[in-house]
Amino acid sequence: MNTKSKIALVTGGSRGLGKNAALKIAQKGLDVIITYKSSREEADAVVNEIKALGQNAIAYQLDTRDVKSFDAFVKNITDHLQTETGHSNIDFLINNAGTALYAPITETTEEQLDDIVDVHFKGVFFLTQKMLPFINDGGGIINISSGLARFALPGSSVYGSMKAGVEMLTKYMAKELGPRKIKANVIAPGAIETDFGGGRTRDDQNVNSMISSITALGRAGLPDDIGGVVAFLCTEDAGWITGQRIEASGGMFL
C-alpha cells in the first residue's frame, strides 16, 4: 500500500458491483482492499486489474455472516497495513457483500430469514463497529441498499426489509460519527445485470424486459452505472454529503 494514497475496503469486491466499485475507486487514485467469500481466483484477478491501474491492492477471504471471524479479519488487514504503510487505518469502508433471496412470505423459512439478516444487517453493523477504530477521521462509510427498500416486488420481503434497515442504520452512523467527520451514505441500485441472484436480471429476457419497461431510462442497469457513484463518494467532491440515500436505478417506478 502507498503511504500517500487513501485506502478503501470493499466487501464482496471480487465480482459484480463490488468488483466494479473497486476498480472505479482505484481509478480515483485510492488503494483498495477487497474481500471474497469463496473464489480466490476471481479476487486475485481483480487485485491484478487494480495493480495494472497503478494502485496497490490485496484480497482477504471473509464471510460477512460470520461475525465471530471479524476480529481475526480486522487484525489481518490492520497488521498488513502497519507493515506496508506504517499505520493501521483505512479511509473508506464499503459494505457491499450480499446474497439474494427470492421467496414469498408464505414460503420463507426461518433459516432463510436468519441468513439474510446475518449477511445484510448484522454483518454490516458489526463489521462497521469492528472497523471504526481503524477508519481515519474525515473518512467515510458507504452501505449498499436496493430499490427494493423503496418499492415492493413479490418475493423480496426479507431482502427489501433488511435493506430498509440498512438505510436507517446509515442515518444513525452519520449522526453518531459526525463528530469524527466520518460521512455515512447509502447507495440503492436498481436491478443490475450481474450474476447476483443467479443472474436473473442479466439472463432472463422476460425479467430484463419488465425492468426496462418500468425504468425511465429504458433499460436494466449495468455495473458501470453503480461503481462510479461509489467511487465519487470516496472523493473530496463528496465531502459535504452524509446521511443520504442515493438511488441509482435509472428511474425505476417513478
UniProtKB/TrEMBL annotation:
UniProt cross-references to Pfam families, sorted A to Z: adh_short_C2 (PF13561)
Family to which this protein belongs: Belongs to the short-chain dehydrogenases/reductases (SDR) family.
The name this protein goes by in its record: SDR family oxidoreductase
Organism listed in the record: Chryseobacterium endalhagicum
Lineage per the UniProt record: Bacteria, Pseudomonadati, Bacteroidota, Flavobacteriia, Flavobacteriales
